[in-house]
Amino acid sequence: MTGAECLLETLAANGVEVCFMNPGTSEMRFVAALDRVPAVRGVLCLFEGVATGAADGYARMTGRPAATLLHLGPGLANGLANLHNARKARSPVVNIVGEHSTQHQRYDAPLSADIAGLARPVSGWVRAVNDAAEIGAAAAEAVAAANEPPGQVATLIVAADVSWSPAVPAAGRVAEARRARPDDAAICRAVESLRRPGTAILLGGRCGQARALEAAGRLHAATGVAVLVERATPRLARGRGLFQPPVVPYFPEPALEALAGARTLLLVEAQPPISFFGYPNTPSRLLPDRCEVVTLAERSQDGTAALEALCGMTGAPPARWTAEAPAPRIPEGPLTAEAIGAILAARLPEHAIVSDEMVSASGAVLPYLAYAAEHERLPVTGGSIGQGLPVALGAALACRERKVVALEADGSAMYTLQALWTMAREGADVVSVIFSNRRYQILEIEMMRTGSLGMGPAAQSALDIARPDLDFVRLSEGMGVPAERAATAAEFDRQLTAALEARGPRLIEAVLG
Ligand SMILES: Cc1ncc(C[n+]2csc(CCOP(=O)(O)OP(=O)(O)O)c2C)c(N)n1
After folding, report:
1. Residue 417 Cβ contacting ligand 1 at under 6 Å
2. Taking residues 153-165, what's their average pLDDT?
3. Residue 137 pLDDT more than 70?
4. Treating both helix axes as pointing N-terminal to C-terminal, what angle do 419-426 and 48-62 enclose, rounded to 10 degrees?
5. Are 389 and 420 in contact (CB under 8 A)?
6. For the chain, which end, N or C, has fewer CB atoms within 10 Å of the first or last residue's CB respectively?
7. Whose CA is nearest to atom 26 of ligand 1?
8. Secondary structure (3-state) at 510
9. Which residues contact 201 (CB under 8 A, 6 or more apart)?
10. Could you tell me the pTM of the whole model?
């Protein structure tokens, strides 16, 4: 078999089933091998940022890596921003990058670049393979590295001649890495903290998922301990019937307020909270000075098991949760972010996956989603916009039986809009809602916050994405995704209901009044 077939066979033998790809000449033998190794399905993406974001979404929902296939340094560079988000999510990704054949690497050919240098800042593991004899073992090592808790990007750089030379696969499967439960000393320290007034728990990592939330809710009900969730928690269960602790706010002032009472902060797969940005008059560190930080579980450990152990040691009984207020009624009139929130609260189907890149609209919409049916929310983990649609695509291919809803600000949507084309081609069950305010609205707020006294026409023009207005209906239809435009709450409700009932991708351009 060829090195490319050996690479794919090894990926398949180690549980990698999908490869989000945008290939070139150096990856042609990999592409050819897809027909001989059908256990790995190639999914074509028309921009590398779509491929890397989709791999992130897939990993968040399965806990397993997808592969990506990118074309030399420039292809990798196009995919870096969403690999950055994947790194912050601790998503396992097997990031395969093609390289020139070994004899060609000594020349400064047009596509020559420092691939490892580009890969390192986003990768926990990087290996270049220039000998076909190594490709089987290297591929197995890449999967093992990606899966190493808590999960990371593992970049495997494969020379073109490795792909076309004969090779033999590595024997057997790599051992599955398990997350260790924190030791008894860490659990005893945490039990002691729970006895003290002013203790708060901060959840992150995998502890946004239902089982961990249930355990945290039991502790909250039994001991009164405050519970918060990190903003960048990659997968957060929400909705009626769940314990829904608040997420640390985006802006520093409300975040400082939310944490002001903490005397001890128990970290569970989380890090001490810091502000998203530094501003002229607010601190970066969000904890009060006198607050002691106690780590119950590191990011690489099993925080859920640790929380459950705490429940056992404190005798916290099962608790029940209901959303405090009834679901809000469907509004009338012009379409606003609040109206979208209320309609989503009523219409979101059970177990939906919500990819959240609403940016400035999130403050208005998210409180309503507390009343929606149980769902999971995937936020932007690394602040790099252009991840929402690709993550939705990856999540939809990972969970074919679940409806995915991408809540997407218009400016952010334009970074990786090509995700719609792959959604159409793959029949991905995604309803994309574009929040069309035709501005970079959050940046108008940030402009004030960073001390600017006013905006002249040049500055305003830099934050205004109208002139010309983007026509998301035509953009979407042009990529094969049926689309409609809503300007009133009633239109949006009707279109959303129909889109949720259909299968396959749909888009609604929500023009905000
Ligand atoms: C890759 C990347 N480039 C630029 C930015 C800076 N940035 C943050 S928000 C934003 C505009 C957001 O506009 P939109 O998505 O329309 O949301 P709105 O603020 O209008 O709600 C930009 C350009 C970023 N976060 N990431």
Report:
1. no
2. 98
3. yes
4. 60
5. yes
6. C
7. 384
8. strand
9. 216, 219, 220, 225, 226, 227, 228, 265, 266, 268, 296
10. 0.97
Give the atom of ligand 1 at the shortest distance from the alpha carbon of 384: 26
Arithmetic mean of pLDDT, 355-374: 96
Q: What is the pLDDT of residues 100-131, one digit of tens each?
A: 999 999 999 999 999 999 999 999 999 999 99
In residues, how long is the chain? Answer: 513
**pLDDT digits over 41-86, tens only?**
999 999 999 999 999 999 999 999 999 999 999 999 999 999 999 9
Give the residue ranges of DSSP H helices in 286-433. Answer: 303-314, 337-347, 362-369, 388-398, 410-413, 419-426
The CA distance from 123 to 83, in Å, is: 8
pLDDT at 173: 78
* Vertex 454: Cα angle to 451 and 457 (nearest 5): 135
Domains of the chain (ranges; CATH) run 3-164 (3.40.50.970), 184-314 (3.40.50.1220), 337-511 (3.40.50.970)
Determine the Cα–Cα distance for residues 462 and 88; give it in Å rounded to an integer.
Answer: 28
**Cβ 466 vs Cβ 434: under 8 Å:** no
Q: 3-class SS at 235? A: coil
Quick check: 70 and 375 in contact, CB under 8 A? no
CB 85 within 8 A of CB 387: yes
Structure tokens belonging to residue 308: 């459950």
State how far Cα 226 lies from the chain centre: 26
Pairwise CA distance, residues 154 & 143, whole Å: 7
For residues 162-172, give the mean pLDDT: 89
- Ligand 1 pocket, mutate which of 84, 412, 432, 437 (most atoms under 8 A from CB): 412
Nearest to 156 by CA among 141, 168, 171, 167: 141
Q: Could you tell me the distance, in angstroms and rounded to a whole number, from the CA of residue 106 to the centre of ligand 1?
A: 40
Q: How far is the CA of 385 from the centre of ligand 1 (A)?
A: 6
Is the pLDDT assigned to residue 325 strictly greater than 70? no
Is residue 355 within 8 A of residue 221, CB to CB? The reply is no
Query: Of 419, 379, 413, which Cα lies nearest the Cα of 231?
Result: 379
The yes-or-no verdict on residue 323 having pLDDT over 70 is no
Measured in Å, residue 495 CA sits from the centre of ligand 1 at: 26
Share of the chain above pLDDT 90, in %: 93
205 C-alpha to center of ligand 1: Å?
24
* Both structure tokens of 227: 């519970």
